[in-house]
Write a structure and sequence with these properties.
Keywords: Acyltransferase, Transferase
Number of domains: 1
Number of strands: 8
Organism: Pseudomonas rustica
Shape: globular
Protein name: GNAT family N-acetyltransferase
Helix content: 25-40%
Strand order of the largest sheet: 1-2-3-4
Order of helices and strands: EHHHHEEEHEHEEE
CATH topology: Aminopeptidase
InterPro entries: Acyl_CoA_acyltransferase (IPR016181), Bact_Acetyltransf (IPR050832), GNAT_dom (IPR000182)
Pfam families: Acetyltransf_10
């Protein structure tokens, strides 16, 4: 039997998992276009990540499997789930579900009445499985298609 997924608050030392998850796990979305990958990763620079940790309105978590980081997520206190990235070799092993449950729990405590996110094409089936539904037409940001999705608190579990 596989070890359980453990979730803990992320630290600055965990930042590398974000870049790897984008490069490898989101290849369907950026199609390995170096310009798109660079633009996407540039939005997650060390300075950005440091600022995230200093902001009490943001929460970053990390999923561990056998004490190895396998996923990372972030939410804002207003109900936005900013990202949920899982290492491709850990897809369908419970890390994404555990990250999302922890993020949603953090948001519930802060009084969120619904959760919203912008999903990549890669993530849409996963978010649908968790009860998220399209909430607006798809967006295109520098060649990256995202789908706004939301989930009312009553549907969260």
């Amino acid at each position: 039997m596989e070890a359980p997924i453990c979730i803990r608050p992320a630290t600055l030392a965990d930042a590398g998992i974000i870049e790897r998850s984008i490069r490898i796990g989101c290849a369907l979305d950026h199609r390995n276009d170096p310009r798109r990958v660079s633009e996407w990763i540039s939005r997650q620079s060390a300075e950005d990540i440091s600022a995230w940790f200093a902001n009490p309105q943001l929460y970053l978590n990390i999923a561990l499997l056998d004490d190895k980081p396998v996923g990372v997520g972030m939410a804002t206190a207003n109900g936005d789930i900013t990202f949920c990235y899982v290492q491709p070799e850990c897809f369908r092993r419970g890390a994404g579900r555990a990250l999302m449950a922890d993020l949603e729990g953090w948001l519930r405590i802060r009084g969120a009445i619904h959760f919203q996110l912008n999903s990549t094409r890669t993530g849409e089936p996963f978010y649908h499985h968790l009860g998220y539904r399209e909430s607006a037409p798809a967006l295109n940001d520098k060649g990256l298609q995202t789908q706004p999705m939301s989930k009312p608190l009553a549907d969260s579990s």
